[in-house]
Amino acid sequence: MYKKYLVVASKLDKAGINITTQLSQFKSNLLPTEIKKDSISFDFYLVEDEILYEKNLDMNKINQYDFIIFASRHKSEKREKTISIHAPGNFRSADYGGQQGKLSQTSALFQKFMFEELNEKIKEHKLEKYKVTLECTHHGPLTDKPCLFVEIGSTEIEWTDKHTGFIVAKTIRDTMNKFKENKYQEVAIGIGGPHYCPNFNQIQLKSNVAISHVIPQYASPITEEMILEAIKKTEEEVDFVVLDWKGLGTSEQRQEILDILGKNYIQYKKTSEISKQ
């Protein structure tokens, strides 16, 4: 499905440089004339400033590729060891790049594949001290090319840990090489719950459902525009919306969301209704 990948990182970002340095050992040394037409390939794009802001990026360069992977650090107040995956975009304010109310394009199937690969490698390489998690859709940059962020958190100790950087790099390499569209998986966007999406994590890892954008409960009031934008900016056809029912706020807020879905003939399932392995 995707053949040409671009891995983007900031030179100011120790985690991004760690990941791309480790990933460089998997880079083919073949000349362009030696690369087969349908083979998978990737390039690096190291940016002088922060990658959250479109003004720092050469969008013409980005638009030459099929899929963009942003390698980055993650910060959190709890300072937990995490490796996280999420799509960029802003449901409300755009304080950290992108545009208000606009989301970047992403692929639910690719995100699911990478999430599964990352969980497997964490176990294989005995890095269970790290929490692998989705994050809700947040921050920039805004791009029409399908993309996602993969981030190491949450302190400089983790950002610069070469073993962790290697595991993330190997996950990126293997996902690029092995990813194929699974037509038997169902595609959804997620609505509700907290930033780190515990219920959607379980669905992404243990069900047949692939999740793209996630609208968190703290973005409330959740509007029709938010939901339609999340569906529109999913590469695949969205089969239904997954609702984190207990994470949707008050009964009035739940009903408002159900009214929007009904008005637009959008099917939905609660997280508790998704069959998990």
Provide a short characterization of the protein structure.
This protein is 30% helix and 22% strand. By secondary structure, it is of the alpha/beta class. The protein folds into 2 domains: 4-178, Aminopeptidase (3-Layer(aba) Sandwich); 186-273, AF0625-like (Rossmann fold).
Topology, pairings included?
Layout: E1 4-10, H1 14-23, E2 41-47, H2 59-62, E3 67-75, E4 82-86, H3 108-124, E5 131-134, E6 147-154, H4 156-159, H5 162-178, E7 186-191, H6 198-206, E8 209-215, H7 224-232, E9 240-243, H8 251-263, E10 268-270
Description:
Helices cover 30% and strands 22% of the residues. The mean pLDDT is 95. The longest helix is centred in the middle third of the chain and has 17 residues, at 108-124. Helix 1 crosses helix 5 and helix 3 (108-124) crosses helix 5 (162-178). The chain has 2 domains: 4-178, Aminopeptidase (3-Layer(aba) Sandwich), CATH 3.40.630; 186-273, Rossmann fold, CATH 3.40.50.10700. It has 8 helices and 10 strands. The protein has a 6-stranded mixed sheet with strand order 2-1-3-6-4-5. Strands 8-7-9-10 form a 4-stranded parallel sheet, with helices on both faces. With 277 residues, it is α/β, with parallel strands linked by helices.
